[in-house]
Amino acid sequence: MLAALAYAVLLTRVLGPVAAGMAQPAALVYPEQEWQTAPSPEAVGWSTAKLAEARAFAEKIGSAAVMIVQGGVVIDAWGETARKFQCHSMRKSLLSALIGVHVHAGHIDMATTLDALGIDDNAPALTPTEKRATIADLLKARSGVYHPAVAETEWMKARRPARGSHFPGTFWYYNNWDFNALGTIFEQASGAHIYIEFKRRIAEPLHMQDYDITDFGYVGGSDSLHPAYDFRLTARDLARFGLLFLRQGRWQETQVIPAAWVSESTASHSALGLNRGYGYMWWTGSGQGLFPHVQVQGHSYYAAGYGGHWVIVLPAKDLVVVHRVNTDLRAPLPGLRVTEEQMGWLLRLILAASGADDLGEVASPPDVREGLDSVVLPHNVTVVPPQDNVPPEVTAFSGTWSGMWNNIGPHILVVEQLTPDSGIATYAWGIARRWGIHSGGWTRVPALVVNGTLQLKLQWPATVTYRPEPDGTLSATNEWPGGKYRATRHRMDDTQSR
């Protein structure tokens, strides 16, 4: 019965009620305790073969989970859709929804200033000018308050404007201070904790399957008085949140989020380039401005989190796409990330599977190199032959070596210089998708000769130890606080740059 209803809804969306053989549109489909899945992609106008292409690309780039929902029905899903991952900055769109509820209820006035709210921060405290920023300014990331914030990335810190450089409301800057302070303001105005209120206002009405208030917590620090508010959610629960916004805040017979707020919060209040913008803690776009490599129809928007977490809402296609990455993974190398370029290509493949043929110019897919070919070395790496005072057992380390960690993680060691008890080495790594590492890099560090081994202290932190073997190879171990990996035997490699 549900499959037939879903099919009727999608036919009505594509063909119209008369052409679909219906006197009037069918009721909208919402998931109950479980999601309804289409009987087959072809039954609702999708291509199984092209969805397989999307799935194959997702596996290459390291996607942990993907859900595709159209008409309230799951078209396809793969990966760990029932696993709770860190949401990172998607938390901001979740809070935006809660703020909208309380704006509509009259508990929050968007025009209220920080000064009127009594919002300040630790030394150096906010200036009188900064305190003129309003709640609306913070929602738009236009506060002009450039105080240090909790949970800022190094990229955000490096780009943060100088204090006092922009008057409130005049300049867009993606600012964790704004977003964290909004958490403080929300709890002050609502009299409720964010996680309790989210459970009551959103998780319960939407019948989220996996929401558990014990999964969440605030993160504070010395940089600011205002903590970050971390969320951990599954792909299948985030898909419900995306569907809620696709349905203009309505869930079955209940208006969970005011429809006016859904429209206002996902509108473009700041232009960030051609057909790309920012709303109230939502990213917005149309045409080729939403993601690289793909053209979308009509105004669209998404919630985004570090590493490749997205809830993408495409109203013109009645479509929600959720993408997750295992940023919880603690591998012995850094680099957890699915890029916007890769997500754009994946979205292109998904839309192509829906039958869309207006996806913009055909572009080359993003780089998805594998194995040793993906290892990145500096162009100026040079091996200096050891001097005569260096013992033969130490000289044996000199040169360029390539190996694989656990047959998964490619890396290259270049021992550039050696003395009897130390040296300089470049440690370079490549793509290891099963560990969530989707880009290569390198670091140059001191090396120590200890009891016939060569040891490197890496910054993430890890200690890599190499030992010469009788067959002319190097054995290696990589130890870090979470465990130990062993490598395949490292062999001499004539690579000088990649």
Assembly state (oligomeric): single chain
Q: What is the number of independent domains? A: 2
Q: Say what the CATH topology of the largest domain is.
A: Beta-lactamase
Q: End-to-end distance, in Å?
A: 57 Å
Main β-sheet, in a few words? 9 strands, antiparallel
* Beta-strand fraction estimate: 25-35%
Strand order across the largest sheet: 22-21-20-19-18-17-16-15-23
Which CATH architecture of the largest domain? 3-Layer(aba) Sandwich
Q: Work out the number of β strands.
A: 23
Radius of gyration: 26 Å
Mean pLDDT: 89
Provide the CATH superfamily of the largest domain.
DD-peptidase/beta-lactamase superfamily
Description:
This protein has 498 residues and is an alpha+beta fold. It contains twelve helices and 23 strands. The strands form five sheets. Strands 22-21-20-19-18-17-16-15-23 form a nine-stranded antiparallel sheet. It has an eight-stranded antiparallel sheet with strand order 2-1-14-13-12-11-10-9, with helices on both faces. A two-stranded antiparallel ribbon has the order 3-6. The radius of gyration is 26 Å and the shape is globular. The chain starts with a helix and ends in a 6-residue tail after the last strand. Mean pLDDT is 89; it is low at 1-7, 11-25 and 331-335.
In short:
By secondary structure, the chain is of the alpha+beta class. The protein folds into two domains: 85-353, Beta-lactamase, CATH 3.40.710; 372-492, Lipocalin (Beta Barrel).
